[in-house]
Amino acid sequence: MVGLQWGDEGKGKVVDYLAGQYDAVARFNGGSNAGHTVVIGERRHTFHLIPSGALKGKDLLIGAGVVVDPVVLGEELSLLPDGVKRKLMVDGRCSLVSPMDKQLDAVLEEMKGSSAIGTTKRGIGPAYAARALRLSPRVSDLMRGFDFAAMVRFYEKLSVNPQGLIAWSEESKRLLGSLLGSASDRITEINERGGNVLFEGSQGTLLDLLHGSYPFVTGTHTIASYIPASLGIPPSAAGEPLGVMKCYATRVGSGPFPTEVTGPVADNIRSIGNEYGATTGRPRRIGWLDLVALRYSIALNGVKKVAVSKLDVLSQVKEFKACVAYKYQGSESADFQGSLAHLEEVEPVYESPLSLHGSRYDNGLPEEGKKLVGYLEEELRVNVSLVSHGEERSKTIEL
Ligand code: IMO
Ligand code: MG
Prior knowledge:
Adenylosuccinate Synthetase, subunit A, domain 2, globular, five-stranded mixed sheet, alpha/beta, 33% helix, 15 helices, 21 strands, binds magnesium ion
């Protein structure tokens, strides 16, 4: 499962809903920058590092391509039933997010001034960078005893304060010791006995480090082709990707957003859709559905099946617009890839094919919802397999 937009597509809800059909749920990218919310009745939990299948009692795997912040992991575990810890395995090859990575994230953002990315300040970029620099310990290195000398010298040179590192590493060892394992071995085992695993992506395709709107992206890969690399399984074991999309668009942080709207229309959608970051609480930027960007994401991930979220929001909004092309220097194009260099300047070309205003979901998918599904299936050449019309678990319709 991958996000097809700029993150916050409703992935947590979809994973929780589908997890019943799987033996395990594995996170394969990002870290505690993710905020995947699951709502069951009055109960609400936002997952940052722990896979969103936790409330379904599934085995939970954190793959090697995830950067693990032991402090956040400990906090998250403390909010969940005790049994969750017994189900959780953290791959020994995961890199850790150290307290210095979080400091460095903040320092870098400040240094960039007006070109700051608007990161979650969870230390994600620096943790992946430290991995590439071969500077930081993996979970397994920490257990064996890691020599922090080079890392400390590096951070001191950068004026990032390494104080507290040893206490942090001891605390992390205590937490991670019992969780350590090999996600690839576990997945192979599950597959060999005929079981299956749901791979839970975080962030969205357009935030991918290589294929997103660089430099306004996250520190790693968010696309389906990262699943086998991250988890250490052959590409053939990764299965069919499911894309998750919202029926409008949002973005948190800086960077180009061609279909962005501001003013009362955006404020209204933000308030109805509760579009505030689940990790940082920041108000999300709001935009209309962007079919140009979605087609790019769908092609990049090889997605044939999508889940569409937040139909209930559009039922409370009078307008609905979909961007069918971008206009740049007088000419129209529907090529997102070709627009990447000038995404800041493109003008969206809209159509208003339908309205969901006033639609109700008490008796399944209403006519207006069916029209939207038909429209998306035709425009995006995918099958819509799941529709969500509210954050609560039961407000889901399988098609
Ligand atoms: P989920 O999994 C939305 C955004 C940040 C920022 C950029 C880089 O809940 O969809 P980072 O801290 O990753 O270096 O920030 O990426 N971002 C997200 N936006 N949803 C997320 O996760 C995000 N994780 C990171 O806002 O623009
Ligand atoms: Mg989120």
